[in-house]
Amino acid sequence: MMKKKIVCLIIAVMFVASGCGDLEIKYFTRINPDGSIFKRIVATGDSSRVYNNPFPFQLTKEWAVTYASKVDTANGDTVFIASVERTFSSWQKADAIIYRPEDTLDCENIDIDYRRKFRWFFTYHIYKEVFLQRFPFRHVSIDDYLSPKEYAYFVEDDSTVVVGMSKDEMKQFDEKGEKHFWNFLNKTIFIEFEKYLDAYVAECNMPVMTNEMKQQLEEFMNFSLLEGAELYSICLKVDELTKSSWSTSAYHSGYFEKLEKSMDADFLLLGNDRDIKAEIEVPGILYATNAQQVDDNCVKWEFQDNVFQYKDYTLEVQFRTINLWAILVSLIIMLILLWLIFKRK
User: Fold this and answer.
1) Is the pLDDT of residue 159 over 60?
2) pTM of structure
3) What is the 3-state secondary structure (H, E, C) of the chain?
């Protein structure tokens, strides 16, 4: 039921579980000098997760796939490992496989972008991998509702932001955070529902909802969803406001089926069950990155999947490569000029 799902959702936001998730994914990317992209992705966890395709794409014959197992000496359990690797001729080919235009899998969706600027002796490169927001609605930003401290604590599980708070201050912080999160959730669900209504009205020539009606509906949703009302009850409210029955008729015809599925707690909940490590190796001189660790021409990140539940999470690396041919051409031109000058003398 919706009420149970919403309660679980708020509890999950207010008390994000700390520690490791039950699946670890390691992404290794090597950008080759010729522009091709090598990717190795390793999943480590229990057998049910590892052998049930833990990767955010379909495994085809183009991928080299291996399976293994090892004993975790810390607790004596056996962990299973699935590793896939593949070389793509270009970043566009890699993006076509890693990125899903229609996001249907309950795991990370990564959009790759690679830009190069030629500057004679050097070529400057900007490579990005964006872990796209998993929350199904993008109508409002969570940053407009949660403060940086609230976001760090409730979403990123950063407990350092509440260090030094008294018991009363902590209680107030929790209550405000819960309220702010609920306002964000209700607003973005309402906007999505409103889009469905407006499209149906335009297509089927049904009674248009006034701004006043929409305001009343938003207030009703703010209360009713928290109390556990189903989407059908909200459609009944639309019919009450418009003095018609078109909204419930649309519901019975399956018009809101996709929206109702998106409102399921499985889509709205924080992730927090996949630990992710990412590593990008570049073929040139590194000069900028947002990575947590830099090791020569290799950069690394570690995070959990909850960091891209409500907004995109970007891995970025900037580097430059030397154009040897440009140096050679410049040297030849310089020698020719010197020869001409010497010849004139």
Assistant:
1) yes
2) 0.83
3) CHHHHHHHHHHHHHCCCCCCCCEEEEEEEEECCCCCEEEEEEEEECHHHHCCCCCCCCCCCCCEEEEEEEECCCCCCEEEEEEEEEEECCHHHHHHHHCCCCCCCCCCCEEEEEEEEEECCEEEEEEEEEECCCCCCCCCCHHHCCCHHHHHHHCCCCHHHHCCCCHHHHHHHHHHHHHHHHHHHHHHHHHHHHHHHHHHHHHHCCCCCCHHHHHHHHHHHHHHHHHCCCHHHHHHHHHHHHCCCHHHHHHHCCCCHHHHHHCCHHHHCCCCCEEEEEEEECCCEEEEECCCEEECCEEEEEEEHHHHCCCCEEEEEEEEEECHHHHHHHHHHHHHHHHHHHHHC
pLDDT, tens digit (0-9, with 9 covering 90-100), for 160-181: 999 999 999 999 999 999 889 8
Average pLDDT estimate for 187-213: 92
